[in-house]
């Protein structure tokens, strides 16, 4: 059995998870990270995606919309801008976020802002395809 560590998933609205887990997969901005006990200290920003939390052989998935992850050898905390259990996400919320991202793209004032907006829109549409049935 894998060694466990303390994991917290926090959004501005509430604490979604606070428990000992075996592993957590985080959608980092530089790629996915799998966190396990005794992981090297790391801090990373996260992009819209799915956090997969495995505890007791069972995996729960949470949709996050950006934030930060603080990883230490004895624990991991994800501070999400917004987070919800994957079973609670709805098509209207994703569609609203995508529409807002499209508007931000249209309103982008310079090349750098446009690239950031395009990247965020791409992340949201990829997330939509990954978690919502057709």
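^ structure tokens above, recovered residues below v
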């Amino acid at each position: 059995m894998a060694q466990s560590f303390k994991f917290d998933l926090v959004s501005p609205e509430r604490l979604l998870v606070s428990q000992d887990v075996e592993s957590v997969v985080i959608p980092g901005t530089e790629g996915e990270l799998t966190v396990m006990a005794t992981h090297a200290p790391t801090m990373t920003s996260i992009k819209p995606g799915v956090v997969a939390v495995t505890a007791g052989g069972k995996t729960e998935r949470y949709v996050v919309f950006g934030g930060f992850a603080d990883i230490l050898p004895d624990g991991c905390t994800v501070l999400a801008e917004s987070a919800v259990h994957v079973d609670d996400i709805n098509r209207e919320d994703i569609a609203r976020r995508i529409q807002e991202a499209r508007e931000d793209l249209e309103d982008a004032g310079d090349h750098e802002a446009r690239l950031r907006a395009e990247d965020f829109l791409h992340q949201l549409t990829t997330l939509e395809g990954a978690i919502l049935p057709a």
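The radius of gyration is 16 Å.
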